[in-house]
Amino acid sequence: MDGARGHGARRRGPRAAGAAAGALLTLASVVAAAAPAQAAGYRYWSFWESDGGKPWAYATQGPATARPADGDAIGFRFAISNGTNDTSRPSAAPDFTGICGGVEKKDGTKRVAVVVDFGGPADAPPGETPPEKPVKTGCAQVREDATGAEALAVVAKPLRYDGAAMLCGIAGYPARGCGEPVADTGGTGGTGETGKTQPSAAPSASATAGEEDGGPSFGVLAGGGAVLALGGAAIWKARRRG
């Protein structure tokens, strides 16, 4: 009798694993179907950092949690980007000396060079035009524990956020919209005049003040990752019971 129960359990194990795998594939298909079709990229503010004069590097966290040090630079670029392989860096260099050289450090504060690149006409949302001056720079003198978002607010108000705390507008641009997908028209895209870079993190940190994932596509991908993780756990448990 015990042997029969054991045999039955062994037979149920593979069936349970197969069912879990089937459910996983179904859920993954649903997630894939939820992604926007033929999207060339997303129009959003990307966030960049420069540590002590180094070249721009794609930020690994959002401006609301990043805490640059005295002598660092932070940059924001508005462009149409498709993941990490198609993200334009700010066209102005992270020149802390040139931006903050005339600002004396005071006790209890730090100086952060801020660069805001509004992108070109090809990056602009329909019906909007980038500011006449394409790049805005300034030196933010803020308290020592201030975040990148606080430094940005000193240099480029007004800032506009959506209900999910995603950074949508800097210095009033753009006036509407937030991280919309851009349809693939078969053209060359609209990443503006500057060259591309290969940042190490997914487009995210720039986009939010309290959330590190920016743009609708990344929420879908995160959901897909959760589905895969849960499905994998279900299969593992089913195999253990077998």
Describe this structure in words.
- The protein has 242 residues and is of the alpha+beta class.
- It is 30% helix and 23% strand.
- It has four helices and ten strands.
- Strands 1, 2, 3, 5, 6 and 9 form a six-stranded mixed beta sheet that branches.
- A hairpin with a 5-residue loop joins strand 7 and strand 8.
- Helix 1 (2-34) packs antiparallel against helix 4 (216-241).
- It is globular and about 50 Å long.
Throw out a few tags for this protein:
242 residues; alpha+beta; six-stranded mixed sheet; two-stranded antiparallel sheet; 4 helices; 10 strands; 23% strand; globular; disordered N terminus
Largest sheet: 6 strands, mixed
Structural class by helix and strand composition: alpha+beta
User: Averaging pLDDT over every residue, what do you get?
Assistant: 72
Write down the secondary-structure element order.
Answer: HEEEEHEEHEEEEH
Uncertain regions spanning at least 5 consecutive residues: 1-13, 19-37, 186-241
Query: Roughly how much helix do the residues carry, as a percent range?
Result: 25-40%
Count of distinct strands: 10
Shape: globular
